[in-house]
Amino acid sequence: MQKIIRIGTRDSQLALWQANKVREELTELGYESVIVPIKSLGDIVLDKPLYELGVVGVFTKNLDVAMLNGDIDIAVHSFKDVPTVLPEGIVQAAVLRRDDYSDVLIFKESEEFFGQPNAVIATGSLRRKAMWLNRYPTHTVVGLRGNVNTRLEKLDESEWNGAIFAAAGLYRLGIKEEDAISLSWMIPAPAQGVMMVTCLGKDDYSKDACEQLNHKDTEICTTIEREFLHLLEGGCTAPIGALAYIDAKTEEINFKGVLLKKDGSKKITVNKTAAVGSHKFLAKDCADYIINRGGKELMAEDEGNAEAPLQNIYSTKKLSELQKKTLSETIGIKDSDFIKIRFNRIPAKVVKKQHRNVVITSQNGAEAILNSFTQNELDFTNIYCVGRRTKKLIENRIGKVTHVAKNAEKLAEYILENSDIKQVTYFCSDVRLDVLPTILKENGVTVNEVEAYKTMLSSEKIADEVSGVLFYSPSGIDSYLEKNSTDKVAFCIGETTAVEARKHFDKVEVANMPSVDSVLELVNNYFSNPNFS
Question: pTM for this one?
Answer without folding.
Answer: 0.59
